[in-house]
Amino acid sequence: MSEIFGVPIAALFGQLVLGLVNGCFYAMLSLGLAIIFGMLNIINFAHGALYMMGAVFTWFLLSTWNISWWWALLLAPLAVGIFGVLVERVLLRRLYKVDPLYGLLLTFGLALVIEGLFRYQYGVSGLPYGIPEVFQGALNLGFMFLPKYRAIVVGVTLMVCFGTWLVIERTQLGAYLRAGTENPPLVQAFGINVPAMITLTYAIGVALAGLAGVLAAPTLQVSPLMGSNLIIVVFAVVVIGGMGSILGSILTGLGLGLIEGLTKVFYSQASNTVVFVIMALVLLVRPAGLFGRER
Amino acid sequence: MSSAQKFRLAGYALLLAAGLVAPLVVYPVFLMNALCFALFACAFNLLLGYTGLLSFGHAAFFGTAAYITGYAAKVMGVSTGLAILAGTAGAVLLGIIFGGLSIRRQGIYFAMITLALSQLVFFVYLQASFTGGEDGLQAIPRGRLLWVINLEKDLTLYYVVFAIFLFGFLLIHRTIHSPFGQVMKAIRENEPRAISLGYDVNKYKLMAFVISAGLAGLAGATNAIVFTFVTLTDVDWHTSGDVVLMTLLGGMGSIFGPVVGALSIVTLESKLSDKVGSLVTVIIGAIFVICVLLFRRGIVGEVQGLYRRVVGNRV
Description:
The structure holds 2 protein chains of 2 kinds.
Chain A: E1 3-4, E2 7-8, H1 9-40, H2 47-65, H3 69-90, H4 100-122, E3 138-140, E4 145-147, H5 148-170, H6 172-182, H7 184-189, H8 194-216, H9 226-241, H10 246-266, H11 274-285
Helix pairs in contact in A: 1-5, 1-8, 1-9, 1-10, 2-3, 2-4, 2-8, 2-9, 3-8, 5-6, 9-10, 9-11
Chain B: H1 3-25, H2 28-51, H3 59-74, H4 80-102, H5 107-127, E1 144-145, E2 149-150, H6 154-176, H7 179-189, H8 191-196, H9 201-227, H10 237-250, H11 257-276, H12 280-294, H13 298-314
Helix pairs in contact in B: 2-6, 2-9, 2-10, 2-11, 3-4, 3-5, 3-9, 4-5, 4-9, 6-9, 7-9, 10-11, 10-12, 10-13
């Protein structure tokens, strides 16, 4: 029994793990998008560019100042988060009174600017980033070899996602956030600083994208273009899952990563498009998305 | 005659005169490219400016029609006029499918769905054999129109392209000022109210989407004949973004806005690309940000506003 449907088991599980790793990035990015959308009512098109910023910053820290991946895990999300504070304070804040589509257009322009500048500075070819020494090699699970670093990505992602869920659903701050999503003027009337909360939400959302970038740096190729290809898939993930529920976006992200991995094994030509096809099917059957509420 | 009507009539006369004289002054191929994008932007504006639907995937229609036209003219040896018609028909069909799917959601979701669907098209064309993959379709013959008019000459082709542009432009004008157009605007302003008045909103949205997709296709098909090649750039999401910017910059919801926007952006890109290279994207992005923050009415909208204020002050 070393084959399933004519595919070696080790290869099958290898692709599934790879799919799960991709799913982790989908989950973390769509989680950030969902949090930002809930509070700001804006779809952050720059999310992919900020993810790329996180990855390139990680590379920059190591190659210029020899600062390790461990520090990057802390510093990169912080840097991206601070950048997010600036973006929210200077740009997005002016758009809360107009059609939310303008927020999409503004962040689209911002994504072009960020990506263009990085491309100008670093070119389009990949920037090499090695896997941290402790995580090199693989674990032998008997039926397959599990590269340690991939296991770490999945572990960290699950922890971060669960942590975010916990903060939003089970803490005082999360309660404020949820209330602010429902009815900002009322929350403000209770003496809570809603504008500061909005800034914080955007910063946390983009910091998640930055963190995803740090995790991606050693496994995917670091390049100024890595974000724009990913963000469109993440949009499809968001349409499939619906942005109504936090757990929903996490599950959808991971699930679609797995499906993509499976597609690579059985019909690799469709692996680029399978997420979009699923999106079309979901729209036919359940337009509001799997976890979404029609509004 | 109201001042708005006068404004529009003057605009039409100016457009016609400028279009007829322009190739004697400016390089025709550049003008043809600008006209194709102007038509593309006008088609897009029918959806964004008049129905309130932001499609982030209009390059799919532009590019699909371009590929079909290129393939028909080059590989199947179909005459140029028929090839353009076939391309446009292909865009209409794709518009029915994409429109049917994407109007199931609204607002921001609509934008994301159209973007994702166009990316699906991009990957299909990247892998399909008839598109030539990364190389694209090269050396598409311009051929003859109706077996008589030789399109190899730039100036002749220019006037054909100008006629196609005028056809598309007038069709859009007619659509906007028809009862159908009024319903579109009603949907843009207040969708629940349009529903409660008994309009089948989805039918209207789909119609608008298909007309828009078809005209975007016509623009793409014509562009393929002008340049004699089609590449993946034509279906890339950057192209979808460009057309959004043209409409935003020129002024959405005004019929001349997209024309002004397209001319500005095409000029800007051709002037800048040899000077600043890859920084063009940065400049395009910065214009996006500035437009959204400072003048959401676009160039034409601002000029109209200024005109009205000046005239209003005098009276």
